[in-house]
Write a structure and sequence with these properties.
Bound molecules: 4'-deoxy-4'-aminopyridoxal-5'-phosphate
Protein name: ornithine aminotransferase
Number of helices: 13
CATH class of the largest domain: Alpha Beta
Pathway: Amino-acid biosynthesis; L-proline biosynthesis; L-glutamate 5-semialdehyde from L-ornithine: step 1/1
Distance between the termini: 32 Å
Order of helices and strands: EEEHHHEHEHHEHEHEEEHHHEEHEEEH
EC number: 2.6.1.13
Number of domains: 2
Cofactor: pyridoxal 5'-phosphate
Pfam families: Aminotran_3
Largest sheet: 7 strands, mixed
C-alpha cells in the first residue's frame, strides 16, 4: 500500500514527513508561519543556515549579483569564479594536505554532487596510478547523500531498499575503529571517505585519536583521506572545519550546505591540486556549478568566516549549549548528549516518547528541532543566535522533557 500522502495538495511525492508548520517568512534565528506564529529555529536547515535566515551580507551579495549576471554555464567563465576559488582555498586550504598554496577546488551545487565529485577524483587518481578496480573505505551509519552511488554504501535499509543494483567498490567498517580501517586497506584501496563527526547518525563524535590515526594510516598506505564536511564544516564545530579540532589535514574536503548561506545551493570539493588536477576538460562538470549567483553568495560566506569570529562564537556558545544539555542529563531528563561547538545530538529517554514526539511538543512551544531516528534529536542553531534566544530554546526543551511527557 502506498504511504499516506503528506498534508497539502497531494501533488508532492511523499518522500518526506515534515513537521506540521508552514513557514512563510524568516529572519535571523526566527521563522514565522502562515498564521503569523513565530518559532525559534534550532535546526538551521541541518547546518545550511549557519549564518541564520537571510543574513544581511548574504542577501545584499545575492541582490547585487541578480542585477549583474546569474548564469553563464562553464562554457564561459565569469568575473567571480576565480575570486571564489581563491577565497575558498584561502579559507580552507590551510586545513587540507598541501596547504593553501597547493589546493584547488571544484565547484558543484549539492552536497551529494560534491561527494560524488570527491569519489570520482579519488577513483581517477587511483586509475592514474594503475589501480583499475578501486575500493574506498567508508563508515557504518554514514550519510553522504541520496544518489544511487552514495546509497550503495549506506547502511540504512530505508535509504537503499528498492534502489539496486548498486555501485561496487566500497568497503564498510565501524565508525571510529582505526584498527578496522587498517585491516580493510589493501592494494585496491584508493581512499578513506568519512564524516569527521557523523551528523545524520545523531552527531557521533569519534575519540580524539581517530582522525589522527586515519591520517597516519592513509599516509602509510599512500591513499587519500577524504572528509565529508558538508554538515560539520564552515564554523559549526567552533572551528572552520571539524578536522581542525584534531589538527588533521585531509587530502580532499567536501563542503556544501552553509557554503550557500541558505540562499542558493553551493557545494565544493577543496583539496590537493595533484589530486583534483586529474579532472581535465570534458571529464567532469555541472551546468550550475560555480554559477555567478552561487559564487557571489559563496564569496560573502567565506568573508563572514574569514576573521574567525564566528567560529570563536560557535565555540563559546557551544560550550554553553553542551553545559546546559549536560545539566539535563544530570537531572535525568536526557539519557545522553554528544556534540562539538554549536552542534548536539541528544538522546531522550524512550519512556518519555519518540524524538518526533519531543519535536512536536517543542513545536507547540514555538521551537523548531528535528528528530533523526528513534529517540535521538539534533540541535544545530544558527552560529549567529543570541545567547538569550539559545537559552529560551533550551528552557523550552527542559520544560518539554520535564512537563509534557
Ligand atoms: N554529506 C553529509 C555529511 C550530509 O549531512 C549531507 C546532507 N545531510 C550530504 C552529504 C548531502 O547533501 P545534499 O542534501 O545537499 O545533497
Amino acid at each position: 500500500m502506498a504511504a499516506a500522502a503528506a498534508p497539502g495538495t497531494g501533488r508532492l511525492a511523499p518522500n518526506y514527513a515534515p513537521l506540521p508548520v508552514t513557514i512563510a517568512t524568516a529572519d535571523g534565528s526566527w521563522v514565522t508561519d502562515t498564521a503569523g506564529r513565530r518559532y525559534l529555529d534550532l535546526l538551521a536547515g541541518y547546518s545550511a543556515l549557519n549564518f541564520g535566515h537571510r543574513h544581511p551580507a548574504l542577501v545584499a551579495a545575492a541582490h547585487d549579483q541578480l542585477d549583474r549576471v546569474t548564469l553563464t554555464s562553464r562554457a564561459f567563465t565569469h568575473d567571480l569564479l576565480d575570486p571564489f576559488a581563491e577565497a575558498l582555498c584561502g579559507l580552507v586550504g590551510p586545513s587540507v594536505a598541501g596547504g593553501a598554496a597547493e589546493s584547488m577546488m571544484v565547484p558543484m551545487n549539492t552536497g551529494a554532487e560534491a561527494v560524488e565529485t570527491a569519489i570520482k577524483a579519488a577513483r581517477k587518481w587511483g586509475a592514474s596510478r594503475g589501480i583499475t578496480s578501486p575500493t574506498i573505505i567508508v563508515a557504518e551509519n554514514n550519510f553522504h547523500g541520496r544518489t544511487t552511488t552514495l546509497v550503495s554504501f549506506s547502511t540504512d535499509d530505508d535509504a537503499r531498499a528498492g534502489y539496486g543494483p548498486f555501485t561496487p567498490g566500497f568497503r564498510v567498517v565501524p565508525f571510529g575503529d582505526a584498527a578496522a580501517v587498517e585491516a580493510a586497506i589493501d592494494s585496491s584501496t584508493v581512499a578513506v571517505l568519512m564524516e569527521p563527526i557523523q551528523g545524520e547518525a545523531g552527531v557521533i563524535v569519534p575519540a580524539p585519536g581517530f582522525w589522527p590515526s586515519l591520517r597516519a594510516l592513509c599516509d602509510d598506505a599512500g591513499i587519500l583521506l577524504i572528509a565529508d564536511e558538508v554538515q560539520s564544516g564552515l564554523g559549526r564545530t567552533g572551528t572552520t572545519l571539524a578536522c581542525d579540532l584534531w589538527n588533521v589535514r585531509p587530502d580532499l574536503v567536501v563542503l556544501g550546505k552553509a557554503l550557500g548561506g541558505g540562499i542558493v545551493p553551493v557545494s565544493a570539493v577543496v583539496g590537493r591540486s595533484d589530486v583534483l588536477g586529474v579532472f581535465t576538460p570534458g571529464t567532469h562538470g555541472s551546468t550550475f556549478g560555480g554559477n555567478p549567483l552561487a559564487c557571489a553568495v559563496g564569496l560573502a560566506v567565506v568573508d563572514l568566516l574569514s576573521t574567525g569570529d564566528l567560529q570563536e562564537r560557535a565555540s563559546t556558545l557551544g560550550d554553553h549549549l553542551q553545559a546546559r544539555l549536560d545539566d539535563l542529563v544530570t537531572e535525568e531528563l536526557l539519557v545522553d548528549v554528544r556534540g562539538a561547538g554549536l552542534w548536539a545530538g541528544i538522546d531522550v529517554d524512550p519512556a518519555w516518547g519518540t524524538g518526533k514526539q519531543v519535536c512536536l511538543a517543542l513545536l507547540r512551544r514555538g521551537v523548531l528541532a528535528k528528530d533523526t531516528h528513534g529517540s535521538t534529536l539534533r540541535l544545530a542553531p544558527p552560529l549567529t543566535i543570541s545567547v538569550e534566544d539559545l537559552d529560551h530554546g533550551l528552557d523550552q526543551l527542559r520544560d518539554v522533557l520535564a512537563e509534557d511527557g
